[in-house]
Design brief:
Helix content: 25-40%
Structural class: alpha+beta
Number of helices: 7
CATH superfamily of one domain: TonB
Order of helices and strands: HHHEHEEEHHEEHEE
Number of strands: 8
Length: about 300
């Protein structure tokens, strides 16, 4: 019988809820209706009955706390403004003048200077007397020698008897145009440059010879490392065809300078040969080559 009562009560409650869509479930009338005929001393009834007041108390406590948290600092700054510090703080700053750094100087390789001292030798001269004695022309009674007689004889100022010549004798007669005859006796004597009529000459003269030496002479690396300097005295022969032969070192300084001097002299192009009595002759030249390091 009691179960039927509760069943009837629940059906009635559900019908009231379904028919009243705007019903407030938090009202006390609903709570009383739900717990009608039940034990109201149970905790659920008390919580339902006091839920409205508890919610209001919690809301009233929470709102002021949030207001204080967010509005409190602004209110505090309004009544206690931050005073600006107007005192200027001077910090001494020491400025150092920056000295520009000098760029690193790259040491240039020491230039190599090859000096050539080739002074042309002075020609020997003798005082010429202007007192010329005029004598009568003697009569020529002696016939001039024939060409076949000159084949085995040396030309000379006088005709004299003796052993026939075995050397090379070349006789060139005139060509009918009035040109003088030239006689080449095959002289292999090496003359000194100071004792001949015309000394050998390099193409371009002394200036051309100096340019040739400077263009071809190289300072040996061994001599540069050992700081070897000085003059190499060298001797060579200018042949009758202008070529350079018999290159010798008279006084050297070592360090490869002697060999370098000989190499350059042997590389020389042909000269204009020296002349003696209107003939090309062999002439020996002696000159110094200066090796100097520029410090």
């Amino acid at each position: 019988m009691e179960n039927l009562f509760f069943l009837h009560h629940n059906v009635e409650l559900n019908l009231n809820i379904m028919l009243n869509f705007n019903a407030n479930l938090n009202k006390s009338t609903w709570t009383a209706l739900v717990f009608k005929g039940r034990n109201k001393n149970y905790g659920a009834y008390v919580l339902r009955a006091e839920s409205g007041s508890n919610t209001l108390k919690a809301f009233m406590l929470t709102v002021p706390v949030f207001v204080l948290l967010f509005a409190g600092p602004a209110v505090y700054r309004q009544f206690n403004p931050v005073q600006e510090i107007k005192e200027e703080v001077q910090i001494p700053v020491e400025l150092n003048t920056l000295v520009p750094q000098k760029p690193l100087e790259r040491k240039a390789p020491e230039p190599v200077e090859a000096k050539v001292e080739a002074a042309a030798p002075r020609r020997e001269s003798k005082k010429f007397s202007s007192n010329i004695k005029v004598v009568d022309r003697p009569d020529l009674t002696e016939e001039p020698p024939r060409l076949d007689e000159l084949k085995n004889a040396d030309p000379g100022q006088l005709t004299q008897s003796g052993v026939p010549a075995t050397g090379s004798t070349t006789v060139k007669t005139g060509d009918g145009e009035g040109n003088s005859a030239t006689i080449n006796t095959g002289d292999n004597t090496i003359y000194d440059a100071a004792t001949i009529d015309k000394y050998p000459e390099f193409d371009g003269g002394a200036e051309g010879w100096t340019k040739f030496i400077r263009r071809n002479l190289r300072y040996p690396a061994a001599a540069q490392e050992q700081d070897i300097q000085g003059k190499v005295f060298i001797s060579f022969v200018v042949e009758t065809d202008g070529s350079v032969t018999d290159v010798r070192i008279l006084k050297g300084i070592g360090g490869g300078c002697d060999e370098e001097a000989m190499r350059v002299i042997r590389k020389s192009p042909k000269w204009t040969p020296g002349r003696q009595h209107n003939q090309s002759v062999r002439v020996r030249y002696t000159m110094p080559l200066s090796f100097t390091l520029a410090h």
